[in-house]
Design brief:
Layout lengths: L2 E4 L2 E4 L2 E3 L8 H10 L4 E7 H5 L3 H4 L10 E6 L3 H14 L11 E8 L4 H5 L10 H18 L4 E7 L4 H5 L7 H7 L2 E5 L13 H8 L5 E5 L5 H11 L3 E4 L1 H5 L3 H5 L9 H17 L4 H25 L2 H4 L2
Parallel strand pairs: 3-10, 4-5, 5-6, 6-7, 7-8, 8-9, 9-10
Antiparallel strand pairs: 1-2
The structure holds flavin mononucleotide.
């Protein structure tokens, strides 16, 4: 399996689990890591709430697992970012937040299309503001490295706020500043007005490949193992970040890491489900995550059972 270095971090494999709000909790990340995801991210953590030490925000950094994990942060202010990172390092020295010591990367989120965030100038609204973005990248890198130079730093962007910004390639202006300050630069190959079903523009990833010299992680439309491999081959990105494909089928990472089949058996789904619940209960994961994953595992089991009944092999493959 090929490795991937993100600054100080060496990963085994080039396929990473995306940050997903209300999805990427410790149990789900641990499952994806165990199946072969080379890296995982927490869901986005709002910098302003973290800086206020809002307890439920601090608890979103539920990094109890062994697999390599990064924290995704959402902020628009370099001062706030500095405060968040400094507080993070202070908290990780305490017993209550000792699990923060497992964090191997920080990632800034400039991709969230939530209109409430865009209205106040956060997320994809910032992509065109090269100087502001540079200030954030620089603050992230210098503050983190001053405390712990084994932590990688990166950012995740979209191709601008709307079709016009995409057309004007505002995101491309960030390549030199990303190259200078970041260990990895993740590009979700859509603008913020584009929704799930619209195709990602892998051609933009190809073009960015020519100007991004830090590690380029491609994102958008890698929905199964074949399309994830195709994204790497067609665009030459260093790594591929997978979101919906992992919700649909976490075993995508087993196939991509060449450890086994892409589709699990019913017994494997049931074992993973049990393991997920045990991890969630051990770490006090909030009920909304359990509800989401219960429904998701249920859906996978029903689909596999239906497929097995249809091809008449159900009894054998249940084992
Ligand atoms: C349920 C859900 C929650 C998401 N939450 C986040 C998030 O917290 N931070 C982020 O940067 N992107 C978030 N995203 C976007 C994904 O990380 C990813 O960029 C997007 O789904 C495209 O990748 P895909 O085509 O592999 O799904 C979320 C996506 C989904 C489906």
């Amino acid at each position: 399996m090929a490795s991937l270095s993100l600054g100080p971090l060496k990963l085994e494999g080039q396929y990473l689990l995306a940050p997903m709000e209300a999805v990427s909790d410790v149990g789900f990340r641990s499952l994806c890591s165990s199946l072969g995801a080379s890296f995982t991210f927490t869901e986005m953590v709002r910098g302003a709430s973290f800086a206020r030490q809002n307890k439920s925000t601090l608890d979103l950094v539920d990094t109890y697992e062994q697999g390599p994990v990064g924290v995704q942060l959402l902020t628009k202010s370099p001062d706030e970012l500095k405060k968040v990172i400094e507080m993070f390092f202070k908290l990780r020295e305490t017993t209550e937040y000792a699990h923060y010591r497992n964090v191997k990367a920080f990632d800034l989120n400039f991709g969230c299309p939530n209109p409430d965030l865009i209205k106040i100038g956060i997320g994809p609204a910032m992509v065109k503001r090269t100087a502001k973005m540079e200030a954030l990248f620089k603050t992230l890198a210098t503050t983190t490295r001053a405390h712990d130079d084994s932590i990688a730093v990166g950012a995740k962007i979209r191709l601008g706020l709307n079709a016009r910004e995409k057309e004007y390639k505002v995101a491309y202006r960030l390549a030199p500043v990303a190259n200078e300050h970041l260990d990895f630069f993740t590009v979700h190959a859509k603008h913020a007005g584009q929704r799930g079903r619209e195709p990602a523009d892998w051609n933009a990833l190809k073009e960015l490949r020519d100007v991004v010299t830090t590690k380029l992680i491609g994102n958008g439309g890698a929905l199964d193992a074949a399309s994830a491999r195709a994204m790497r081959q067609e665009t030459r990105v260093d790594g591929v970040l997978i979101a919906r494909g992992a919700i649909r089928n976490p075993w995508i990472f087993r196939a991509l890491s060449e450890r086994g089949a892409e589709l699990p058996s019913v017994a494997e789904v049931e074992a993973a489900w049990k393991q997920y619940r045990e991890t969630a209960q051990l770490h006090g994961t909030r009920q909304k995550y359990l509800d989401f994953h219960d429904e998701n595992f249920q859906r996978m089991r029903t689909a596999l059972n239906a497929a097995q009944s249809a091809d008449g092999t159900g009894a054998a493959r249940k084992k």
